[in-house]
Structure formats: C-alpha cells, structure tokens
Amino acid sequence: xxxDSYDRVxxxxxxxxTERCNFRCQYCMPEKPFSWVPKENLLSFEExxxxxxxxxxxxxxxxRITGGEPLLREDLDKxxxxxxxxxxxxxxxMTTNAFLLKGTAQRLKDAGLKRIxxxxxxxxxxxxxxxxGKDVLKNVLEGVExxxxxxxxxxxxxxxxxxxxxxxxxxxxEYCKARDMSIRFIEYMExxxxxxxxxxxxxxxxxxxxxxxxxFTDEGFDGSSPSHYYVMDDGYxxxxxxxxxxxxxxxxxxxxxxxxxxxxxxxxxxxxxSIAESVKRGDIKTAALVLKEVVRTKPExxxxxxEDGEISSRAFYETGG
Length: 321
Ligand code: SAM
Ligand code: SF4
Description:
Elements: E1 12-16, H1 45-58, E2 62-66, H2 76-86, E3 91-96, H3 105-111, E4 115-119, H4 125-132, H5 137-150, E5 153-158, H6 169-178, E6 183-186, H7 203-211, E7 216-221, E8 227-232, E9 237-241, E10 254-257, E11 262-264, E12 273-274, H8 276-280, H9 284-296, H10 316-319
Parallel strand pairs: 1-2, 1-10, 2-3, 3-4, 4-5, 5-6, 6-9
Antiparallel strand pairs: 7-8, 8-9, 10-11, 11-12
The chain binds S-adenosylmethionine (SAM) and iron/sulfur cluster.
Iron/sulfur cluster (SF4) binds at residues 21, 23-25, 28-29, 67-69, 97, 119, 316-317.
C-alpha cells in the first residue's frame, strides 16, 4: 500500500499519454506550446505498461488515462487492454474532450475501459468555438452519445467562466441530468499557460445560480473524490471541485505520470521525479523506489488560494488535469 507523509492512502494514478491536443482551450492551452516534447522522449505503451504493473503491484487501484487529448495517441485501446488483462479489477477511466470518440468508443469499451469524463463547457456552437479555438461541439456531442450507446459510463466536467459560459450553468446541468450523467463544475485554476484575464466562477457564485432553480442539500465529500457533492430533491447529484478551499487536499489520493515519464505528486507544484530511465532499462526495482519517494514527498496542500499570489507553472495539458 502507498501511504504519504500525511497518512493519505495513494491508490489513484492519472496517466497523461500525450501533451498534444486538437483543442486550444482558453483555460489550458490557448496557444500551441513553444515546443512539444520530442516524440522520441515519449514512453511507449509497452514502457508505460511496465510502470503500470509496478504501480498496481504497489497498491494503485484506479488508473485514469488523460492528456492533452488521449485519443490522439494511436493504439490507445491496446494500452487499455494491456492494463485490463493484467488486473481486470482496476477501475479504468479516461478523461477526453470527446472530439474523436465517435469512431473509437466501442473499441475502448471492448478493451476494458469502464468510464469516461468528458469536458462540456457549453452547448452553444459559437461559444464552444470561442473556448476551444475551433468548431468542436457537434463532434463532442456525437461522441458522448456514442459512448453512452456502447455502455460507457459518462461524467461531464464543466469549467464555468464569467462572460463566457456563466449563463449556461443550468443548461449544461439539465443536458446531463436528462441523460442521467453526473456533472462536476470545476473552478477555474489559474496557471501560467492559460489565456490572460479569465475570470473563473467560485463555488458560492455557482451555488447561488443553481439555487434559483433547484433545492439541494450539501452532502460534503465522498471518500477520496475531490468533488464537494450536492443532492437535489429528486436525487440528482452534482459536484463542485474547489481547489481554492482549505480542505480540498485533505483526502487527495492521487499522483500523476506525464507522457515522458515524470511522476508528479501534486497538480500545483513543479516537483517531479522521472521513472523513464529505469523503465527503459527494465529496472523495475528503481521504478518502484521512485514511486514510493514521490508518494512520500506529496505535499500537504496545493497553493491555489494562497496569499502570496503565486500562480502554478504546471501546464494542465502536461499533467492531464
Ligand atoms: N483533453 C481532455 C479534456 O479536456 O477532457 C483531458 C485533459 S484536460 C487537461 C483534463 C481536465 O482538466 C478537463 O476537464 C479540463 O476542463 C480541466 N482543466 C484544464 N485546464 C483547467 C484549468 N485551468 N482550471 C480547471 N480545470 C482545467
Ligand atoms: Fe486540450 Fe483538454 Fe486542455 Fe482543452 S482542456 S486544451 S481539450 S487538454
């Protein structure tokens, strides 16, 4: 079992399989990065899988594939199948923008993928274009329908922003509710790569909007999920991710692996250790030691909401969110 210095059990690994993306979301990657990680520095799926085995053997129970946009990476279904065949009980999920999901959902499901989280910030095509930098909404919504049709469980992530999609908070929730998909509103997290001047929406403002239409009760946190949950009178549950709140990190159970093999203990900070060299030379013992060290050094808290005004210099497209 992996336990950090604050007695938190770490059993959730998020794996970014590429930092590249077909979208240019304002809050994540508004511009093409100055340089991409050279292709030869990316770990192959076989190399990533060697590390997945180590992580599973050490106590990881949930693996989420993310990016960048994970569906840009060829043969993703084969990677999923490798993990599934090694340990079918692993909770295997993926976070995607869904643009390429239409032709791939069935293969991913057959390979062993159980759930997906899809980013839907708007239901208005022109707003989707404004947020993602291209005309994406039709493909995204078709991808979601396809995923549901093949039996993947779908959750939706929405990042509300003032003057961009603030007016659509209820519409997006209704879209999800009508399809029995849960929604998590993610507070915009400042970072050095986002477009300047984004005004995020904090949970109190969100709740004020939602309370104009719904009655709901505060359920608090549920296990190690980062969402603060609320349940409506009819039983529909929605979540809010509030990284600026003091107790946000208390139940954090996750670490992150980038596509080039950097193991990251916290989304906010620059700290990381590489497993690339050890995995490439088949030195599984060292990879396991690095994993334990990264868990040991996991910080108690992120610094979003800190008083020093510092902004995270971690790119979401690199860490996978
Ligand atoms: N491309 C996939 C997608 O968009 O779902 C997966 C990677 S993306 C980095 C993972 C999640 O991070 C998405 O739900 C996205 O909304 C969220 N995200 C990215 N930048 C963010 C920011 N600055 N604040 C809050 N959430 C952010
Ligand atoms: Fe791409 Fe996801 Fe970042 Fe948008 S949030 S730019 S879809 S990685």
